[in-house]
Amino acid sequence: MGEEQGNLKTATGDENLKDIFHSIRTTKNPAVINYGASWCRVCNQILPTFQELSKKFPKLSFIYADIDECPETTQNIRFTPTFHFYRDGERVDEMFGGGEERLYDRLWLHS
């Protein structure tokens, strides 16, 4: 399932991201997806924090999806970065933009 770094997976394309969605729905494990883009300054600033936080919340699956690598599955994403939080296979929350403390608080809430 994409590249892995600790508890962080990177979606490698639309088919891979579809597999990840399917896995979230079927395993019902809590997950967070970070939708970003290589050209997005805020995305690049928050990504190292996202990687670090993946080690602090081992019960959560962390997924990074570049909207340019997964254009079909991310066409409804209007802002980068966007974070989607999943519990029991369903999306339960979303957060727009960066902010390390905001992200930490949301992760804590959903872990």
Automatic annotation (TrEMBL):
Domain Thioredoxin positions: 1-111
InterPro entries linked: Thioredoxin-like_sf, Thioredoxin_domain, TRL33
CDD domains reported for this sequence: TRX_family
PROSITE patterns, A to Z: THIOREDOXIN_2
Name of this chain's protein: Thioredoxin-like 3-3 isoform X1
